[in-house]
Write a structure and sequence with these properties.
Blueprint: E1 2-7, E2 11-15, H1 20-23, H2 34-49, H3 57-65, H4 68-71, E3 79-81, E4 86-92, E5 95-99, H5 107-117, E6 121-125, H6 133-146, E7 158-162, H7 167-176, E8 179-182, H8 186-193, E9 202-205, E10 210-216, H9 217-221, H10 225-240, E11 250-256, H11 259-280, H12 285-301, E12 305-309, E13 316-320, E14 335-341, E15 355-361, H13 365-374, E16 382-385, E17 395-396, E18 399-400, H14 401-404, E19 406-412
Parallel strand pairs: 5-6, 5-8, 6-7, 8-9, 10-11, 10-15, 11-14, 13-14, 15-16
Antiparallel strand pairs: 1-2, 1-7, 3-4, 4-19, 12-13, 17-18
């Protein structure tokens, strides 16, 4: 079984059994090992010094997240006393197999960071479609850093590979992994869950998800020009950085308030967001025009929408006929479903297990807590301010990732 190794060194063809994470059985790194923290801090510094990578918002966000100061916020004590004689020691879980998505090209490093901080060895399968000068530069930084004497021990801990749809290789990875992190949607999760895994293997699954925006109309109308520009900038960052294809990027925008206020707020947000897209969004406009026209046509024929707002193909607001009870995924690239509602409680039929993130603006803590309570047992994993929809952290899709990837060792002395 042959595959391509991308990191810690590039090897065009290597047998899966020879991957360092499987052939080396020693676990030298401990929970939040200083060498691990130093490694990610070094990656952060090098990305921020790279003139080309510094121009890409997703890479800048990654670099800031990997800084030592941020990583230290994730740390829990490695030994926790239960009483005078009993304690819990946090140990590595073992080998973690990451099935990485192709729609968000930096997620593999976030996934790796959480697992490596727990002391685990990692094999990451990335898509053959993940090819770009920026990714090449990022892997060059990673490999160069692992190649230094200071971080040479990471050769057995970081193994990034690429291969096609090979059931034998997938089966080998699953059988030898102590945890599987499955990004990429329903089909990916179902494919790997059908494979036999080790009896104690932990599965962390990230299936298809839908996210939405929640905007209070009267608060938007009270903004001055600079405040409105800033709100639209934050919304732009939530949606356009990954072409609106990230699971946490809003697909639906709910405007909350009376009909008149909501209509005015819609036009203000449309105008401000459209301006940011004109200034910042780089895309294939011809392909985008075709995608959005087809989406708009299909939505109209299916009677999902009753109207639309579209000045250019950079941004479409498609007015929903009613609050959806099934997940709605747009074509991305700035195609939003919008709906005016009087009150948050109207979202109750919309909330289900497919709903991941609500990015809000203008709501009180009491209102947000009522939203959280309304979603109990039904769905909704994250409630965050507009501008933070893509902000990765240790709590994702309802998982405490660091705890999931840590072996809790019980000691009674």
């Amino acid at each position: 079984m042959i595959l391509q190794q991308i990191s810690p060194t590039k090897i065009a063809a290597i047998e899966v059994e020879r991957l360092p994470c499987f052939s080396n059985t020693d676990f030298e790194l401990q929970y939040f090992d200083e060498r691990t923290v130093g490694f990610f801090n070094s990656i952060s510094q090098q990305v921020l010094k790279d003139a080309s990578l510094r121009q890409i918002p997703a890479f800048v966000a990654l670099a800031y997240w990997l800084r030592k100061s941020n990583i230290e916020t994730l740390r829990k004590t490695s030994s926790e006393k239960i009483d005078n004689n009993q304690r819990i020691i946090r140990q590595p879980l073992g080998v973690v197999f990451h099935v990485c998505p192709s729609n968000v090209d930096t997620i593999f490093l976030y996934s790796l960071a959480i697992s490596l901080l727990a002391g685990n060895k990692n094999v990451l399968r990335v898509s053959n479609r993940m090819e770009s000068p920026a990714l090449d530069a990022l892997f060059a930084i990673i490999n160069r850093t692992i190649g230094t004497e200071q971080f040479s021990m990471l050769h057995a801990y970081i193994c990034v590979v690429a291969y096609g749809h090979d059931a034998d290789i997938n089966g080998y990875m699953s059988a030898h992994a102590d945890a599987r992190i499955m990004w990429g949607g329903d089909k990916t999760v179902q494919l790997f869950r059908a494979l036999p895994a080790a009896p104690r293997c932990r599965d962390i699954a990230f299936p298809d998800r839908l996210s939405f925006g929640l905007l209070k109309a009267e608060n938007i109308l009270s903004l001055d020009e600079s405040e409105l520009i800033e709100l639209c900038r934050l919304l732009y960052n939530d949606c356009y950085i990954f072409d609106q294809l990230g699971c946490s990027s809003p697909q639906v925008l709910f405007f909350v308030g009376n009909e008149n206020d909501c209509s005015k707020a819609q036009h203000l947000i449309y105008s401000g967001l459209h301006q940011w897209a004109k200034e910042k969004y780089v895309t294939d406009l011809a392909a985008l025009a075709s995608l959005k026209l087809n989406q708009l046509t299909n939505d109209a024929m299916d009677e999902k929408i009753i109207d639309s707002l579209r000045d250019t193909n950079l941004l479409v607001f498609a007015q929903l006929k009613e609050i959806p009870i099934e997940p709605l995924h747009s074509c991305g690239g700035g195609y939003f479903y919008i709906k005016n509602i009087d009150h948050i409680k109207e979202l109750s039929p919309f909330i289900n297990k497919k709903i991941q993130t609500a990015a809000y603006y203008g709501f009180s803590e009491e209102e947000l807590i009522s939203l959280a309570k309304m979603a109990a047992g039904k769905g909704l994993d994250r409630i965050v301010p507009v501008g933070q929809a893509l902000a990765f952290n240790n709590y994702w899709d309802g998982y405490h990732l660091l705890d999931q990837l840590t072996h809790l060792q019980y000691l009674w002395v």
